[in-house]
Amino acid sequence: MTNYPLSPAEIEALGKELEAIRSKVLAKLGEEDANYIRSIFKTVRVTEALGRGLLFLGWLPPAWLAGTALLSISKIIDNMELGHNVMHGQFDWMNDKLLNTQFEWDNVCPGDEWRHSHNYMHHTFTNIIDKDRDIGYGIARMFPEQAWKPSHLGQPIYILLLALLFEWGVALHDLELDRVVEGKTKLSGIKGKAKSVFRKMRKQVLKDYVFFPLIAGPSFIPVLTGNLTANVVRNVWAFAIIFCGHFTENAHVFPESVLENETRSQWYLRQLLGSCNIEGGPLFHILSGNLSHQIEHHLYPDIPANRYAEMAKEVKAVCKKYGLPYNTGSFSTQFSGMLSRVFKYALPIYAKESDRSEQPKSAEETIRLPVAA
Amino acid sequence: MTASITERLAKTLSRLSEQSWIDPLTANFWLGQLDPILSINEVKARVAAVQKENGFLRLTLQPNLLWQGFRAGQHVLLTTEIDGRRHSRSYSIYSSNQKQNLIELGIRSQGRVSSHLFEHIRVGDIVQISQAQGNFVLPDPLPEKMLFIAGGSGITPIFSMIQTALQQKPDADIALLYYAPNYTQLPLGVEIQNLAFAHSNFKLKFSVTQTEPYDADLKGHFVPDHLNWLNDFQDRTSFICGPAGLIAAIQHHWQNKQLPPPHHEYFKLNLTSDSATQARFEVELADQHKTLEIKGGDTLLNQLEQSGVAVKSGCRMGICHECRCTKTSGVTRNLLTQELSREPGPIQLCVHRAESNITLAI
């Protein structure tokens, strides 16, 4: 409680206002939202069919380029706007038997494992040091509050590899292999999950690197390289958007103590301070799966993402009213902010109690309210 | 012959999708582009005819190749979409099962879904239905003598059974006692009378509960005297379908006469009032073949855990959906939104509490 710049009463009032925004949108959900997600699904399917179709003519460079581009877009939208949002349960209210939380997306990470590490772990423990495993994905040090190890010196390379192979990193994420290596978890404990991860990886590999190349006959190689490239493009894009979500220059992190008796309103405040938006147009919002509205997503993870843009206006107004920072910026600003952290905290730089220069500047300037006891 | 090839194709695709080599969402999407009735795993039907009269809707449906037929007396779960949300309701098939490629549903317009269908359904629409369900069926072989008692739209499954029985055996010994509020709210009344004219061994008696009866018709709700027009009701295999009050009265009378209980099917779900917090409910865990008793007031997650059932959970505050599981029947309330969930479908155990007996697919 003492970490926040608002009084307990103000925090509760803030929570109520944020909850009201949620209730208002919940009541409005209906045909418009159902049609939206179905049109997104259609887009994924049509771009996939066109992309894969063109790759069958892939010996012609324009066909290979266009096919790979379309397949990349299909995979990006499947990962971001379709998969991520549907798997969050955002469209469960539709009672659709297939377009619901149990949806399985087109990458090597199995749905069940992702739902556990993301829906539960990440969204519950958002930006809490040593609890939120998404901070640096277990391989990079993004904040001075995290302990430094000599291996962190190599983290720019690890991050580059993670970006290129992001779907594989995500798939392994829930296995918490670093805990197995450190001896905190027994190998037998992750056997079930590991089997599930292996099965999904096998299915994807067979699909993109065996089945489609084989049925392409003479176009085996262009289809194989096209599929590989599309997967890498999707990996890098997803990595970029996701890492901008919580690791920009002005992101807040929190100690484990904030979890004690955390009220819903305090949870709202932590989600707000720990998330970062990216400015952009409607197409950017779709391609980023509306994670350009990371703040709204973290406040309302199970509200259909197509509603985040309209909710953002009200959330911004509420932040202004309570003097809270609303962390947003252009893609280049947020991305370079994230990259700076990767390079800076590869080195053993720590936050000092007295050294306020480590604190986000904008937060410093805007949070000038009385501190709670 | 093409029918059997497509049938085999559909069955193969179905099996492949069960083993998750084919994604049903994707397969159904592309099949649907060819024809919206096609699906690898859902029974869909085209609306071939729509007839409305006096608040009773009759739909003639032509199901797709996945339809596995039905026994007279069964019903289907029909799913329709209202404002983006899918709703499912049970409606009985009233047509005879001698014609299997066409089914006729009888729907009384009284609730949200039935009213929506009444207003909006058109010939050519595609609806989704379940496979035929229900244990209230015409026995095989046919009993010697039968007595059917129908209350209101409870006539629908009974009409299917009578039609089917008479098609199998035109001189079957059948009696029907049919309760309705008045002569305008008498679904299938004309068809029933035509059957009675055509089959001399089919004995028919109406009773109207809210108006004056004609001729030899009876008046009011069931009393034992209503069986006096038959001299052998005790010897007949009996079937009853209608509201709970009618069924209770009949069962009581049969018990008094020390007769075996009649086959029955209820036509309305009993919903408890808001004294739900003091109430006790039964939760059936379908996959574990267990039924527990729980308290109405607390969340299902707490109640299940207290009963020693291992349930997945996460944030316990309705955000992460880890505790989500499927409710196959019953009514629950979402404590965050205060909304009632009446539909079969997924619910988050940590924020729902029971409002009636429920069944969970865990």
In words, what does this structure look like?
Chain A has helices spanning 8-28, 31-55, 61-87, 111-124, 155-164, 166-173, 177-181, 191-215, 220-243, 264-274, 282-287, 294-299, 308-322, 331-344, 361-366; strands spanning 277-278, 328-329. Chain A contains 15 helices and two strands. Chain A has 373 residues and is an all-alpha fold. The longest helix of chain B has 17 residues, at 2-18. Chain B is α/β, with parallel strands linked by helices. Chain B has helices spanning 2-18, 24-34, 112-120, 155-168, 189-198, 244-256, 300-306, and strands at 43-53, 56-63, 75-82, 85-92, 103-108, 126-129, 145-151, 173-180, 202-208, 218-219, 237-242, 263-266, 280-285, 290-295, 324-329, 332-334, 340-341, 345-348, 352-354, 358-360. Chain B contains seven helices and 20 strands. Chain B has a six-stranded antiparallel β-sheet with strand order 4-3-6-1-2-5. The model of chain B is unreliable at 269-276 (pLDDT under 50).
Summarize the largest interface: chains and residue counts: A-B, 37 and 30 residues
- So what's the oligomer here? heterodimer
Uncertain ranges of chain B = 269-276
Strand neighbour order, sheet with most strands of chain B: 4-3-6-1-2-5
Shape of chain A: globular
Write down the Rg of chain B: 23 Å
Order of secondary-structure elements of chain B: HHEEEEEHEEHEHEEEHEEEHEEEEEE
Strand line-up across the major sheet of chain A: 1-2
The best one-word shape of chain B is globular
The number of helical runs of chain A is 15
What helical percentage do the residues of chain B reach? 10-25%
Query: Average pLDDT of chain A, to the nearest integer?
Result: 89
Biggest sheet details of chain A: 2 strands, parallel
Structural class of the secondary elements of chain A? mainly alpha
State the helical fraction of chain A: 55-70%
